[in-house]
Amino acid sequence: MFEWLKSLGQQDEGLEQIQNEFLQMLEDGRHIFDASSNALLGGTNPSVIHDDLFDTDKRINKTEQLIRRQMVVHGSIHGSQTFPALLVFMSLTKDAERIGDFAKNLYELASWGPYLGNQETKNEMATLKNRISKLLIKARHLYEEQDTQGARAFLNEVDEHKRLCDQKVQEFMGIKDENMSGCVLTYRFYKRILSHLSNIISSVIMPVDKLGYRPEKSA
After folding, report:
1. Measured distance CA(151)–CA(201) in Å, rounded
2. For 169-201, what is the HEC assignment?
3. Quick one: which H or E segment has residue 4?
4. Dist CA 110 CA 91 (whole Å)
């Protein structure tokens, strides 16, 4: 989307600043995700990371508000031709903010000390956690570089992980003799984070009016 704005001649420092702030939101979301997941799966005491985690969450929220103000100013200066893309970019910043929120949900879950099944189940969750963390890092690079080929591969990988999350939720919902709600919530939060990542990276390859949608695959 930033390439579309630049094609209109909007290559000013304000636009670069907005993009840098957005990329920082992604980085902060990854930090919350890693810290929260380590508290949930790695044994980190939730109280130890509480202040840092919630300070980071507040920074994400303030950055989102700042970007919105900057986008309004940018649009008023450069005219109505930029409005569609600016409105969509506000939606992308909401996706980045929601990544932080769902990552914070993992922290809240960790603070409740949920039952997460046997060691094999925990290992599976930890494996997916590590993959999502890498995707969060990769998403920043793909967006910054506007790498269309990499974005397509990224979205395919995200789809695979989302399908896994659905499979795991169905599996745990079918267990009657143990309370697997902690596992169900973990995979649901994982899937929501992946979905918001997908929305953001879809902007690299999709036109402005189709962000968040994927081309239908032929049968």
Report:
1. 6
2. HHHHHCCCCCCCHHHHHHHHHHHHHHHHHHHHH
3. helix 2-7
4. 29
CATH code: domain of residue 30 = 1.20.58.220
pLDDT digits (tens, 9 = 90+) for 170-191: 999 999 999 999 999 999 999 9
Q: Give the Cα separation of 78 and 61 in Å (integer).
A: 26
Give every CB contact of residue 179 below 8 A, 6+ residues apart in sequence.
Answer: 115
Q: Note the pLDDT of residue 55.
A: 97
CA distance 200 to 192: 13
Lookup: tokens for 22: 């957005």
Residue 127: how many CB atoms within 10 A of its CB? 10
* pLDDT score, position 218: 38
Query: Is 194 within a domain?
Result: yes
Backbone region of residue 212 per phi and psi (left: phi > 0; alpha: psi in -120 to 50; beta: other values): left
Of 110, 98, 20, nearest to 61 by C-alpha is: 98
Specify whether the CB–CB gap between 187 and 169 falls below 8 A.
yes
96 CA to centre of own chain: 5
Q: CA-to-CA distance for 83 and 143, rounded, in angstroms? A: 20
Question: Per-residue pLDDT tens for 44-99?
Answer: 899 999 999 999 999 999 999 998 888 888 777 766 666 666 777 788 899 999 99
Q: Is residue 203 part of a domain?
A: yes
Which domain, by its residues, includes 177? 11-210
